[in-house]
Amino acid sequence: MSSPRLLVLFGSQTGTAEDVSERLGREARRRRLGCRVQALDSYPVVNLINEPLVIFVCATTGQGDPPDNMKNFWRFLFRKHLPSTSLCQMDFAVLGLGDSAYAKFNFVAKKLHRRLLQLGATALLPVCLGDDQHELGPDAAVDPWLHSLWEKVLGLHPGPLRLGVIPPGVPLPSKFTLQFLQEAPTGSEEQRVARTDPQSPPSELQPFLAHMVTNQRVTGPSHFQDVRLIEFDISGSGISFAAGDVVLIQPQNAASHVQQFCQLLGLDPEWCFTLRPREPDVSCPTRLPQPCSVRHLVSQHLDIAGVPRRSFFEQLACLSPSELERDKLLELSSAAGQEELSQYCSRPRRTTLEVLCDFPCTAAAIPPDYLLDLIPVIRPRAFSIASSLLAHPSRLQILVAVVQYQTRLKEPRRGLCSSWLASLDPGQGPVQVPLWVRPGSLTFPETPDTPVIMVGPGTGVAPFRAAIQERVAQGQAGNFLFFGCRWRDQDFYWEAEWKELEKRGCLTLVTAFSREQEQKVYVQHRLRELGPLLWELLDRRGAYFYLAGKREGCPAPTQLPTLPGSSGLCVYRLRRGPEEPSCGLQPL
Fold first, then answer.
1. Are 13 and 97 in contact (CB under 8 A)?
2. What share of the chain is helix, strand, coil (3-state, %, to 5)?
3. pTM of the model
4. Closest CA to 434 of 378, 482, 472
5. Is the pLDDT reported for residue 209 higher than 60?
6. DSSP state string for 31-58
7. Are 127 and 96 within 8 A, CB to CB?
8. Whole-angstrom Cα distance, residue 307 to residue 328?
9. Hey, which bits of 283-401 come out as E strands?
10. In the predicted model, what is the mean pLDDT of the chain?
11. pLDDT in tens, 452-502
12. Lowest CB count within 10 Å: 134, 424, 426, 480, which one?
């Protein structure tokens, strides 16, 4: 009797859940179990009633929200009319990935586990709660959970007796083969991946190639931070957005890094190939043109500037011809080697390209077929839209802080997307950037007499500029902006615009310039000073309160003014990562 095929379904926002799912797939194949790995929204959810064995791997984003690539699945699964015996034939397990610094830690995994039980499915194990805050990351919980999982699965569905487990050092077949062409195809790759259906709105699968109109530095020349105001022309795109929405931009690797990578692996950037999956249920990456050049693959698809995960070292060890390098890679990928891996890679933010430079014999021996197994895809970056279509028709603006910081490594660390955007100069010729828009979690009241209090230190002010432009154009008053920065003459974004709106009576502006006096003054000090006004707006006039910015740059909940009788008040913060805004609002 043949064992059933294992199905691994993932919901991933940053790629961690997808990486864990691929690890599950590899471990299943080593145990001679057939296995499919799919994003939840790419799987026909109605087929779930026929699946005997399913592992769900899901992250929690924002304030207990499911990732974007499982939202359709989520809505379907929580329909009220589904029978309580819908999934009675299914054995399942749920692996969650979250961050215990957030109030709703692993909320999606816990809720999914409960819902599957309600629909009659049988749990193989308690839900796994991976935690980013653990010193060893999610693997501290994932490793022992997977050990228990395989014991359960193989107890219920033993593999072929005559075949043992494939040892960890033996490479599995690659998911794809690269078939190199004798002649280069005609036409550019950009044309082959551009939107083919102008009626549908731009998306990740079909982004809009927007012309960059301006790329202007808006911080003073002596300021430590390079911040850019970038404007795109979106005429003819069909893109529409409102204040609080987010634009996603697909970045590229630096040309110097592409060249260095190709030299390390002995690849000619001009070589062209077609991609073929080895198994019938594996589809080719939709964003990759067919045929494709090595240059396009490396510059626009492979995340060689990202910090590699543990799975990268595990797979690289299988391909290494050097005993010395292979032993080190196996050590870094082992459970016992996670502290050393963190010291070597995670903490100093060492990139995939830099790791390959440290293992040159291994890098030179990597078969091209394994590139897509080894290196994840470049993920789009999200930025708060900083303009309103009512004020700037057919235009979209963003405020971008160019990320650069130092670790113990000699070369400074640079944000991939922000550095790439900063390098583009529309004054030297046409520049096109692939982008699309999605709704944000930041929504503003539609009633004209409801005041809005916005606290936006630094680049956190970007979504509030869009909101103020939109509200002013619609005749909505009661706009209160608390803005903080270091120096009035160095990083006071949109100073002239704010002052003009103040003159017209459309805006009340409160500023805090932290470095212009001996005692540092931040927005939280201004909030305390104006506590009576805030209470009047919140309690008497039903104002909405918003806080946006980097985690380290925003006042903590305990730094906000204490308002009498405010126990029922819900204050929202828009939290951001190191390079770009996220879209999650977190109640404080």
1. no
2. 35, 20, 45
3. 0.86
4. 378
5. yes
6. TT--EEEEEGGGS-GGGGGG-SEEEEEE
7. yes
8. 18
9. 292-293, 381-384, 395-401
10. 87
11. 999 989 899 999 999 999 999 998 889 999 988 888 888 899 999 999 999
12. 134
